[in-house]
Amino acid sequence: LGGAPEEKPLSGRHLLVTSGPTHEPIDPVRYLANRSSGKQGHAIAAAAAAAGARVTLVSGPVTLPDPPGVAVVRVETAREMLEAVEAALPADIAVFAAAVADWRPAAFGDQKIKKGPEGPPPLALTENPDILATIARRTEGRPPLVVGFAAETTDVIAHARAKIARKGCDLIVANDVSAATGVMGGDRNSVHLIGRDGSLETWPTMGKDEVARRLVARLGQHAASP
Ligand code: CTP
Ligand code: CA
């Protein structure tokens, strides 16, 4: 009915994916954000559903349609994303593809900030929770397989290796998001897969959908032989 078992390598598994940017409000009409489109994260959610997984996609604000067969939880801020991720656990596999804002405005006023003779207002920032590190470092209820992304503009592999150690995830998908690559917002991606054991695999540039299918196939292998 659902095809041969090897076509549904993730059936019976719950896969959690974060995707998109977060928006961090400054006042009721303004926010801090980044250029993430959510294309890579949404493609991973779609590929995992096609591979038979039950998928929860926690997404920041994107203009993409919901992937078919995926339970989508929409959030705005990093703190809301962390809450939604915690509510979606337990999961067998968690993939943190969101471009979470590292900082948010320290103060949020419910009135619009007005121009005035005193000039531009200071914009003090405070650090957001690290969702990936929070989940990967849990002692109880940690998904058995935790995958992070690393968005870098220089020394991609070295920075990604440092991240895997710092955050405690099992696998990192590192990509070069320099403006010249067109990865942020674009349809193609060139990634390196870096394992906790230091292993490194460089994939050729391909569509984000194809990156997603290959990654999901890889996760299916991990899930089959933990
Ligand atoms: N991440 C997260 N929560 C944050 C920041 C990042 O869950 N507050 C996750 C991202 O989803 C990604 C990984 O951490 O899977 C790495 O994100 P990245 O921005 O590349 O790394 P940072 O640790 O934020 O470091 P920096 O931005 O300084 O390179
Ligand atoms: Ca960051």
Helical residues, percent = 25-40%
- Which structural class do you get from the secondary structure elements? alpha/beta
As a whole number of angstroms, the C-alpha radius of gyration is: 18 Å
Strand content: 25-35%
Bound ions, cofactors and other small molecules, one mention each: cytidine-5'-triphosphate, calcium ion
Overall pLDDT score: 94
Question: Shape from CA axes?
Answer: globular
- Let me know the largest β-sheet: 8 strands, mixed
What sequence of helices (H) and strands (E) makes up the elements? EEEHEEHEEEHEHEEEEEH
Query: Would you report the number of β strands?
Result: 14
How does the SSE layout of this entry go?
Layout lengths: L13 E6 L4 E4 L2 E3 L6 H12 L3 E6 L11 E4 L3 H11 L4 E4 L6 E3 L19 E3 L3 H6 L8 E8 L3 H12 L3 E6 L11 E2 L1 E5 L4 E3 L3 E2 H17 L2
Provide a descriptive summary of the structure in words:
- With 226 residues, the chain is an alpha/beta fold.
- It is 26% helix and 26% strand.
- The chain is built from 5 helices and 14 strands.
- An 8-stranded mixed sheet has the order 5-4-1-6-9-10-12-13, sandwiched between helices.
- Strand 2 and strand 3 form a beta hairpin.
- Helix 1 (39-50) packs across helix 5 (208-224).
- The longest helix has 17 residues, at 208-224.
- The protein is globular, with a radius of gyration of 18 Å.
Summarize the structure.
It catalyses: N-[(R)-4-phosphopantothenoyl]-L-cysteine + H(+) = (R)-4'-phosphopantetheine + CO2; (R)-4'-phosphopantothenate + L-cysteine + CTP = N-[(R)-4-phosphopantothenoyl]-L-cysteine + CMP + diphosphate + H(+). With 226 residues, the protein is α/β, with parallel strands linked by helices. The chain contains 5 helices and 14 strands.
